[in-house]
Amino acid sequence: MLLELRHEHADLEPAALKTAGDLRSQAHLAAELERHRPADAVLSEEAADDATRLGAERVWIIDPLDGTREFSEISREDWAVHVALWESGDLVAGAVARPAMGDTLATDRPPAVPDRVGGPLRLAVSRTRPPAFVTRLADRLGAELVPMGSAGVKATAVVDGTVDAYVHAGGQFEWDSAAPVAVARSAGLHTSRIDGSPLRYNRADPRLPDLLICRPEYADHLLSVIDELTKGETP
Ligand SMILES: Nc1ncnc2c1ncn2[C@@H]1O[C@H](COP(=O)(O)O)[C@@H](OP(=O)(O)O)[C@H]1O
Ligand SMILES: [Mg+2]
Questions:
Q1: Which percentage of the chain shows pLDDT scores above 70?
Q2: Average pLDDT of 112-128?
Q3: Sign, CA torsion 48/106/93/36
Q4: Which residue of 17, 45, 98, 129 sits with most ligand 1 atoms within 8 Å of its CB, as the best mutation to test the pocket?
Q5: DSSP for 64-81?
Q6: What is the annotated signal peptide range for this record (predicted)?
Q7: Which domains does the chain have, with CATH numbers?
Q8: Which of 126, 133, 134, 205 maximizes ligand 1 atoms within 8 Å of its Cβ, making it the mutation to test the pocket?
Q9: Which of 84, 174, 185, 202 is a good FRET partner for 45, with 20 to 30 A between their CA atoms?
Q10: Are 123 and 167 in contact (CB under 8 A)?
Q11: pLDDT the model gives residue 235
């Protein structure tokens, strides 16, 4: 549906295409959830927050279009659709669709992370707003930065072996990472805040400003270098 929209309305201004994509995807997901799971709560980037989710047992955490900017750039493939299910305290399922890449990674068929091919450590980083500390982290590690759009695409780039880690800080919301984290966990990857503490979802305040998703063998080293770099400062 989003690919069709993009194809049919390639002449729209980027801002109009972004809005159309957000609205179309939100309407579709909200209608399907209402049809199939009417009793469940929903937390979406594109809908007003409803505090009843805080007392609910099951909450769908969705980002109908992640990497909205990249969606509006017709030649780009780095945008995604996130759908996660939180139940009784933690994420229990999730899917990250990468429509322009033609695949969907989901927890019901946990992806296998390919063996590493060698070479320097590769870190996925926002192509439009790379956190300054990630650049310093890459310098310290002798790592290569691989810029791309969308939190879902960056997280699934760790899953598919394109990069070794996705480190983010400085701002994000639960919907940006819920489905990507569920998928990454199902693939056996490390997922945490950058101070090593657990990522928690369905909180009253949906801001979740930082995260680390990486191959498990790099987690301790990355966390300790991040700790050194961020000591005494806000990343
Ligand atoms: N500093 C920040 N504050 C709030 N949201 C941020 C952010 N940095 C990234 N994000 C969100 O994380 C997603 C990926 O961003 P990026 O590609 O720059 O890494 C985007 O989601 P949306 O496209 O759904 O808005 C973006 O809004
Ligand atoms: Mg998003």
A1: 98
A2: 95
A3: positive
A4: 129
A5: EEESHHHHTSTT----EE
A6: none
A7: 2-105 (3.30.540.10), 122-230 (3.40.190.80)
A8: 126
A9: 185
A10: yes
A11: 56
